[in-house]
Design a protein that fits this description.
- This protein is of the alpha/beta class and about 240 residues long.
- It folds into two domains: about 5-95 and about 215-235, Rossmann fold (3-Layer(aba) Sandwich); about 100-205, Rossmann fold (3-Layer(aba) Sandwich), CATH 3.40.50.1400.
- The protein has eight helices and eight strands.
- The protein has helices spanning about 15-30, 50-55, 75-85, 100-115, 130-150, 165-175, 190-195, 215-235; strands spanning about 5-10, 35-40, 60-65, 90, 120-125, 150-155, 180-185, 205.
- The strands form two sheets. A four-stranded parallel beta sheet has the order 2-1-3-4, sandwiched between helices. Strands 6-5-7-8 form a four-stranded parallel beta sheet, with helices on both faces.
- Strand 5 (about 120-125), helix 5 (about 130-150) and strand 6 (about 150-155) form a beta-alpha-beta unit.
- Helix 1 packs across helix 8 and helix 4 (about 100-115) packs across helix 5 (about 130-150).
- The radius of gyration is 18 Å and the shape is elongated.
- The relative contact order is 0.18.
């Protein structure tokens, strides 16, 4: 059975964000032997159902990889429903995170921003009404804390508590006089990244994808998600 990969991002109205995600999809396509289609769960076209229709013309099985950092409604409902209604068999992989390789990128972004010992670090996540997605973000904060050797709290841009401005204010009150850095746990530039930058920290890092950087760690995670599905289907 011929596989095709659907790299399904959230979608954004930001030109920089669209370009950053497009470069990731192109890098994934260069790393895989299977054809890769970029698609979106919201905001942009093509959407996932229409991409599955297109995929059915050239493959017998679709592997849908959510280009999402945590698994919430989009993974468990939107993508699951699209896979169930697909004209060809379709498998939805886990989201990109939590994953130690994403933490590597977060550390790189902190280093680029000038992180130093004594800084208070807040992980800025998109947020979700799904408790599983929120738990994923707190797990990533814990992994990041282990890497930098100091506590990392989590704050959310929407849909979950504490809000990012609240988390920044709490970090500042815990260590008066210390700098507060936001580690932006968002895939790409866009509206949420703008909100993170306005949340009151002294320094806010770039998202995982930037206009000039497509970290290989993200490409390898996507490739691993595809490989895991193919190994299971070969058993």
């Amino acid at each position: 059975m011929t596989d095709i990969v659907l790299a399904a991002s959230h979608g954004t109205s930001s030109p920089e964000g669209r370009a950053a995600v497009r470069r990731l999809v192109e890098a994934v396509a260069g790393a895989l032997t299977q054809p890769v289609i970029g698609c979106h769960v919201d905001v942009e076209q093509p959407d996932v159902p229409s991409s599955l229709e297109s995929a059915a013309r050239e493959a017998g099985h679709a592997i849908i990889v959510p280009l999402l950092l945590s698994a919430g409604y989009h993974v468990f409902v939107d993508l699951a429903d699209a896979a169930e209604a697909s004209p060809i068999p379709a498998t939805v992989t886990p989201a990109l995170g939590p994953d130690a390789r994403l933490v590597e990128v977060l550390v790189e972004r902190l280093q680029e921003a000038g992180h130093r010992p004594g800084d208070q670090v807040v992980l800025a996540a998109a947020g979700s009404s799904d408790s599983r997605a929120v738990a994923d973000c707190h797990r990533t904060a814990a992994l990041l804390a282990g890497r930098i050797g100091s506590a990392v709290s989590a704050g959310f841009v929407s849909a979950a508590a504490p809000s990012l401005p609240e988390a920044v204010a709490a970090a500042r009150s815990r260590a008066p006089g210390s700098r507060v850095l936001i580690a932006t746990y968002l895939l790409a530039p866009g509206y949420f990244a703008q909100l993170a930058a306005a949340a009151g920290a002294d320094i806010t890092t770039e998202p995982l994808l930037t206009p000039t950087s497509t970290p290989d760690q993200l490409v390898r995670i996507v490739a691993d998600r595809v490989g895991a599905v193919r190994r299971l289907s070969a058993v």
